Amino acid sequence: MSTDSMPRTVIWWGVVIALAGGALIAAAPYALTAWWGMNTAEWSAATVVFEVVLAIARTTLAPLGAALIAAGLVMHYVDRRLRGDRIADRPHRWRFPSAEEAER
Question: Residue 79: which pLDDT band, with cuts at 50, 70 and 90?
Fold first, then answer.
């Protein structure tokens, strides 16, 4: 993977993960109850384990996707700023003023 395609790849991974997290938030409880009927104690224990795993995935995937999208956008912005040929396109660096500059 080249550094030119990295921000685009990170953004797309963020979109996919955010959509998967949204789908889990919307559909996981219904799919789990439709898929498993709790007939025995063993299936009840398995359902509890899957509910815990799905709850962790539902709470982490959507924010992770949003964070990846934001990171990709920041990488794209920084790449554009550092790639500029004109002096106005380069990042502005702040520095402490010298004693002569401070007296002016």
Answer: confident
* Chain center to CA of 86: 32
Q: Is 24 left (phi over 0), alpha (psi -120 to 50) or beta?
A: alpha
Using an 8 Å Cβ cutoff, are 60 and 18 in contact? no
Give the residue among 16, 61, 55 at the shortest CA–CA distance from 32.
55
- 3-6 own/partner pairs: CB under 8 Å, 24+ apart: 3/79, 4/79, 6/75
Q: Which two tokens stand for residue 60?
A: 């982490």
Task: Report residue 41 as tokens.
Answer: 């104690």
Buried b vs exposed e over 64-100: b needs ≥16 C-beta within 10 Å?
bbeebbeebeebeeeeeeeeeeeeeeeeeeeeeeeee
Phi-psi region of 84 (alpha: psi -120 to 50; beta: other; left: phi over 0): beta
Its pTM surpasses 0.85: no
